[in-house]
Amino acid sequence: MNGTELLATLQAQQDKATARAGELRDRIENLTAGLAEADARLAELVTARKVIAELAPAGHEPDPPQQATTYQTIVNAFNQHPDQTFRVRELHELLGMPTGDPAVNVARSRLGRLTRQGFLTQPGRGRYKKRTQRPLRRFVSGAADGAAASGVEAEGDRSRDRGCGR
Predict the structure, then answer these.
(1) CB of 108 closer than 8 Å to CB of 74
(2) Do 93 and 103 meet the contact criterion of CB atoms below 8 Å apart?
(3) Which entry of 18, 73, 132, 138 is 20 to 30 Å from 153 by CA?
(4) Mean pLDDT of the 27-50 span
(5) What is the pLDDT, as a whole number, of residue 7?
(6) What is the dihedral of CA 34, 40, 44, 47, to 10 degrees?
(7) Bridge pairing between strands 86-87 and 127-130
(8) How confident is the model at residue 39 (pLDDT cuts 50, 70, 90)?
(9) What CATH class has 70-130?
(10) What CA–CA distance (Å, rounded) separates 97 from 89?
(11) Alpha-carbon dihedral of residues 42, 43, 47, 52, nearest 10 degrees?
């Protein structure tokens, strides 16, 4: 490569770098303008919030907390009566909920979920009761006896529970 070719290559690289720098400057200008607009909008919102807060009545109390969800209501009922076994309709009557078939079917589904999650037991068909104690986990005997005594599962047991082969 002679001197003329080298100068031409350097000129091409300089032109590319100049074009790239110009593009970046344009982007910076656009971003700066966007930032200024966002800052102006933020200032407007802060001002509006202050004005509304000043105009609100001084003795205004905040909204009451949301009512408990149906799941929370059901769980509370079982917590208040931990030794009692409920049928779905009995539970609805206790809670003052509708006892029609559609409402009872929805509640039956909810109780099934709570049973699968381990919160409730199902001592008989259509009957639900609060689980008083979680079932014990399986432990591997032998090398993990110390782990079992301390309440820690052995590694092989966890992988088997996940469906992994070892």
Answers:
(1) no
(2) no
(3) 132
(4) 90
(5) 93
(6) 140
(7) antiparallel
(8) confident
(9) mainly alpha
(10) 9
(11) 0
Q: Three-class SS string for the chain?
A: CCHHHHHHHHHHHHHHHHHHHHHHHHHHHHHHHHHHHHHHHHHHHHHHHHHHHHHCCCCCCCCCCCCCCHHHHHHHHHHHCCCCCEEHHHHHHHHCCCCCHHHHHHHHHHHHHHHHCCCEEEEECCEEEECCCCCCCCCCCCCCHHHHHHCCCCHHHHHHHCCCCC
In one-letter notation, the amino acid at residue 144 is: A
Q: Would you say the C-alpha torsion 159, 161, 162, 166 has a positive or negative sign? A: positive
Among all chains, which residue has been given the structure tokens 């079917």? Answer: 105
Which residue is listed with tokens 């039956």? 108
Dig out the tokens for 164 from the structure.
Answer: 């992994």
pLDDT in tens, 52-65: 888 876 665 555 55
Amino acid identity, residue 106? V
Q: What is the mean pLDDT of the chain?
A: 78
Determine contact, residues 52/94, Cβ cutoff 8 Å: no
Q: What's the token pair of residue 151?
A: 């309440």
Token digits of residue 53: 């807060």
